[in-house]
Specification:
The complex is a heterodimer. Chain A is mainly alpha-helical. Chain A contains 12 helices and no strands. The chains are: A mainly alpha, B alpha/beta. Bound molecules: adenosine-5'-diphosphate and magnesium ion. Adenosine-5'-diphosphate (ADP) binds near residues 46, 49, 51 and 54 of chain B.
């Protein structure tokens, strides 16, 4: 009798444990599956287009009658919007973090931080239209040569979008610096600003760097804002006034059309995808590694 | 409180007059009157929680870093007779003149050299020669120079605990403070490192005034000229260290130094 109860419970336990593990393993397999498809299809692509031409070509016109498959314009577009975004997000994010962590009254911080985190929930399509319909016309009043579609405006908006993320992760890193380190600095006669820049930023360096890198990786992967406001025009340029196309917005554009499976145009999605994947993955790995180092610092 | 001391024929560096301190509603220091002689070591002893750290941190206005803390009364610093805890005095100005070494070594995440140079840089002192010279002088002053002169540009976190604490002393010395505060500076150190720091403190009183909190009565007896015994926020007895340890006038002091409580 006793044994029977035991074995019944045992079976249930095993089943629960098994299904928990299954769902964990499941998501890993899905991810691996996606990576596999990505690699497989892009290998198919590289059977037709030499990898060297792909990586060094400066013209990307896969849908034209006489197609060319140089990825550089898309990489340039991606880096350009990312650079604009980062030049906004990193300084503003860091300043926000320093303000919240070192200057703001406790109550203010407790109110503002959740709001910042809420801002991350604004759908990117809203930001995209904001860039196209509000910011670009505004900027055109200052820069007359700014195209209706350009890298600048979505880049700036993307930067604003990333500020809460960079700010809140950096703030966590600053807050994690032990109080006795701050006291050491104040005891030497330092001001708040000197303490923040000379002691706290170096102390929280890994965490802040991780915030920066994750922010950059978000900018690289951002899709909707650039798809709406940057122009869908592959353009090998470093001029943010011009329309451009990023890797992500190219993928969106092509995925929206109905390209037959197996065509070379179809495979370009995966080739562009794997470049994007490698770019964001490497930033995430660096960020992850840096984040792990914070915990070892003290 | 009783004051039976040879202190009256010495120069007084600082003097607390009816000093009260509050953490919010909590009255942590109750009407302290207290004199610190120049170029002497004054020790603060007393059971844990009696307010030694609280008192010490009034001298460099550390309490200003946290909200709801309040000073009442005065701590005068001589010769200019400014009230250190006065509302009209900028805490940074006070900290420029009175430096502190903490209970736990707290070097900055920088090189040994940059740790010592920190106070100079904060004061806007430029010029490699001047800074080099002051760094060396301070490290010598902290009896650390010979151990680190070949690795000044290594990270301070690679040093041992005792070395880190002496680095913090060097950091505090670099800006020529008038008073140096120590809050149980050896409580995190092993006996050898402790005796090095103790020797150093005795050496340092040749050039500056020292106020030290210690949990260790032998330490107070070994290194201090004057000793103050505190109990629940009050100053029970103050006097020459010899007198306090051999012939205390207060019963409470006697009970404490003979180890009957604390
Ligand atoms: N930040 C603080 N807020 C409120 N009370 C405090 C704070 N720090 C210390 N106290 C209290 O003040 C009293 C004196 O503390 P402290 O000066 O640290 O004592 P000691 O250094 O002699 O051990 C204790 O009762 C302690 O609980
Ligand atoms: Mg204490």
């Amino acid at each position: 009798m006793k044994k029977k109860i035991f074995s019944k419970r045992y079976i249930i336990e095993t089943m629960i444990e098994g299904s928990l593990m299954l769902s964990a393993v499941f998501s890993i397999f899905i991810t691996l599956g996606i990576i596999f498809v990505l690699c497989y299809e892009s290998l198919e692509f590289f059977k037709e287009i030499p990898i060297k031409d792909f990586l060094t070509g400066t013209v990307w016109t896969p849908l034209f009658a006489n197609p060319q498959f140089g990825i550089l314009p898309l990489v340039a577009g991606t880096l350009l919007t990312t650079a604009v975004a980062v030049s906004v997000a990193l300084p503003i994010g860091l300043i926000t973090a320093i303000y919240l962590s070192e200057y703001a009254p406790h109550k203010f911080r407790e109110t503002v931080k959740p709001i910042l985190e809420l801002l991350e929930a604004v759908p990117t399509v809203v930001y995209g239209y904001f860039a196209l319909l509000f910011l670009t016309p505004l900027l055109q009043k200052v820069f007359e040569n700014l195209s209706g579609f350009n890298a600048l405006s979505p880049g700036l908006i993307m930067g604003i979008m990333i500020v809460p993320y960079v700010g809140s992760v950096s703030e966590d890193a600053l807050k994690a610096v032990p109080m006795h380190i701050r006291e050491g600095s104040y005891a030497m006669g330092a001001t708040k600003l000197q303490t923040a820049f000379k002691v706290l930023i170096p102390s929280a360096f890994s965490g802040i760097a991780a915030a920066f890198i994750m922010g950059i990786s978000r900018a690289i992967g951002e899709t909707m804002i650039v798809a709406i406001a940057a122009g869908m025009m592959p353009n090998f340029t470093a001029n943010p006034m011009e329309p451009i196309q990023t890797l992500t917005s190219y993928i969106v554009q092509v995925s929206l059309g109905d390209l037959p499976h197996g065509t070379i145009e179809y495979k370009t999605i995966f080739a562009a995808g794997i470049v994007l994947f490698i770019m964001t993955l490497s930033f995430n790995i660096i960020g992850f590694w840096l984040k792990k180092r914070i915990r070892e610092a003290y | 409180m009783s004051t039976k001391t040879k202190q009256f024929n010495e120069i007084i560096k600082a003097e607390a007059k009816n000093l009260n301190f509050y953490y919010g509603d909590f009255h942590a220091l109750k009407g302290l009157d207290f004199k610190v002689s120049e170029k002497k070591v004054t020790a603060l002893i007393g059971p844990s929680g009696c307010g030694k750290t609280t008192f010490l941190r009034c001298f460099n206005r550390m309490h200003d870093l946290y909200p709801n803390n309040r000073y009442e009364g005065e701590i005068l610093m001589y010769p200019d007779e400014i009230n250190i805890v006065g509302d009209n005095i900028d805490p940074i100005e006070v900290r420029m003149r009175i430096s502190m070494v903490f209970q736990k070594p707290n070097p900055f995440p920088k090189t040994i050299y940059e740790n010592v140079a920190y106070g100079l840089r904060v004061r806007g002192i430029r010029g490699k020669d001047i800074i080099d010279e002051r760094v060396e002088k301070s490290l010598r002053g902290a009896a650390l120079w010979d151990e680190v002169k070949d690795r000044l540009h290594e990270h301070a976190f690679n040093m041992s605990g005792g070395q880190q604490q002496r680095l913090c002393i060097a950091r505090a010395l670099a800006t020529d403070p008038e008073i140096l505060l120590f809050d149980e500076p050896t409580s995190a150190l092993d006996p050898i490192a402790t005796s090095k720091v103790e020797e150093l403190i005795v050496e340092l009183k040749k050039v500056l005034t020292i106020l030290i909190v210690t949990h260790n009565m032998q330490q107070a007896a070994r290194i201090s000229d004057y000793t103050a015994f505190m109990y629940v926020g009050e100053l029970v007895e103050f006097g020459d260290t010899d007198t306090i340890f051999t012939a205390p006038t207060q019963k409470l002091t006697e009970e404490y130094i003979t180890g009957r409580f604390g």
